[in-house]
Amino acid sequence: MTDSTSTKPMRQRMEEYVNNLQEHIVTTFEKLDPDAPPFKRDSWIRTQGGSGRSCVFACPTGDEAGTKSHQSILEKAGVNISVVHGVLPPAAIRQMRADHTSMPLPDRPEGLPFFAAGISLVIHPRNPHAPTCHANYRYFEITEPVNDNTTSPKILAWWFGGGADLTPSYLYESDAKHFHTSIKNACDKHGTELYSSFKKWCDEYFLIQHRNETRGIGGLFFDDLNSGPHQRLSSDSGIKRPVTPDEVFAFVKEVGDSFTSSYIPILEARHTTPYTEHHRRWQLIRRGRYVEFNLIYDRGTKFGLMTPGARTESILMSLPETARWEYMSELGTEEGTEEAKLVQVLKEPRSWV
Amino acid sequence: MTDSTSTKPMRQRMEEYVNNLQEHIVTTFEKLDPDAPPFKRDSWIRTQGGSGRSCVFACPTGDEAGTKSHQSILEKAGVNISVVHGVLPPAAIRQMRADHTSMPLPDRPEGLPFFAAGISLVIHPRNPHAPTCHANYRYFEITEPVNDNTTSPKILAWWFGGGADLTPSYLYESDAKHFHTSIKNACDKHGTELYSSFKKWCDEYFLIQHRNETRGIGGLFFDDLNSGPHQRLSSDSGIKRPVTPDEVFAFVKEVGDSFTSSYIPILEARHTTPYTEHHRRWQLIRRGRYVEFNLIYDRGTKFGLMTPGARTESILMSLPETARWEYMSELGTEEGTEEAKLVQVLKEPRSWV
């Protein structure tokens, strides 16, 4: 019996999956740069229910310009998992119903139990030619209240969400193509319009509205994926898509598993590219934009920070080690430069495959 | 006839005031550091009505560690004024009524004309022992629509708002006392409870909720100050407070004028203090917290960025040149250190005078 048809509850299968994926991703990065310090593994308990493990890489050099000859490949990175549960009050249920159509009505004053398991990772390499990469996969469940711990509670609503996206400071079209092709291949095994729908969603989601530019060159973004109709997918039953819990989980695992093969070859190709202070300066400005998106628009970050008992350090591990803001910087505005070439695709997202 | 009893419309008096204050503050900083490049003066026009002038200091050194022996006193600074007008749609009126009790009902589908004039400044010195300082003073008016440009429109609602606050990386109690005393002296000429009420409001406003620490060591914060009752001021008519437009304007000018004497002596005392990479690192972490506050909580920034036609570069000039995020940094957590001494007062705001 393979895991994709397991009789175990989905919450347990997802928990095992994100545990294994975290370990696989972290050890992959550690093998890539054996001279760098290992990721710092940090387990935590949520007093309101659940736990998590943050694996964070940092290698402060005391040399902020980052131009030393011997450097770690990564500058800052976090690969976090969390498996939490508790009770969603009616107000939270009401708010979540906007994005999750299968969510029950908030008609029980005592709220409803929830369960959430997910992995979230952000990799900021040191070299300005190597792109930042983010990925996140999560499973969410709302159940009937149960008094008896031995019984599996009845699931009232469930969905998966996630995605992966690339944020370069300098555009290498071959990298963009490799990243998107890798994700598309993973998607195409599970449905014919998954890649095109969720690629578009990604471009829409990662928009820095006040700059009218996207955070990066996109990838995949999806939410609220379950057996029901989906706002971004055709309701035509002749078009293949994952429907059952097993099928949706198999799709999520496929894209989750594709992370290393989509990103590591890019990192391997770029981390030794020579760079100057000019490249570093632009990278830090781009990291400033990353901070702007995450703190102003990112739903996960906002939601996380507003949640009582949230672990701020884990949520904000997505922020780069350093970021830079220049008033009316000329970088990125001068036509024909490598910086302007990137800004161009951020202002007009392209098809890469 | 002094300006405080001028017959000119208040909008014109405030516009002249912020113009003069901007020039005074910018030239004061330029005289303080004659070897540094001048502020870059940048006038702009708002297509929907009005204009502004940004005066911004930047002196990129290409040396991010900032430990060179010859350095400009400031690292990044902006002193901006804007004088804008237009029409507030009913939805915006409705939203503003929450904070401004004198605001008319949003019962005209065509909205109502508004006028706003203000000065906003943020000074980030280079030396980690010299605190960042922010100040902002603004006048807002809602009027009857007029078709005839020669007539002064009837004012339906008006208020002043503003304040000033100090954000050190290292706590010098004498600096905190000087800054607060200077502001208190300015307040006390105009009312007996202005300083205590608005100092408290400042501590409440500049709270980084997800860190449970304030952005800095406070100062003054007020809004919605006009002739009507005020939520933060006693309604006892025996307690002196500014009431008429002339009186409120005189108070705002007094605190606005006190900016240079409240801050410049601190900057003069600290900008030559020797510092190490350790001090710089902590300063950059504190600047990261400044970014968190401004992007997540600051009403002016949020409101500004969401406004169509807003000038993003002027709004985000408040951000530091560089900021830093470390996962679970030990800085600030070790009892007895200078860093922990600062964190202590950010977690428990103190009385300084």
TrEMBL record, chains A, B:
GO cellular component terms given for this protein: cytoplasm
Any one Gene Ontology BP term: protoporphyrinogen IX biosynthetic process
GO MF terms, alphabetically ordered: coproporphyrinogen oxidase activity
UniProt keywords, alphabetically: Oxidoreductase, Porphyrin biosynthesis
Superkingdom: Eukaryota
Pathway annotation from the record: Porphyrin-containing compound metabolism; protoporphyrin-IX biosynthesis; protoporphyrinogen-IX from coproporphyrinogen-III (O2 route): step 1/1
Keyword Oxidoreductase part of the UniProt annotation: yes
Gene3D superfamilies: Coproporphyrinogen III oxidase, aerobic (3.40.1500.10)
Pfam families according to UniProt: Coprogen_oxidas (PF01218)
Name of protein: coproporphyrinogen oxidase
Organism: Agaricus bisporus var. burnettii (strain JB137-S8 / ATCC MYA-4627 / FGSC 10392) (White button mushroom)
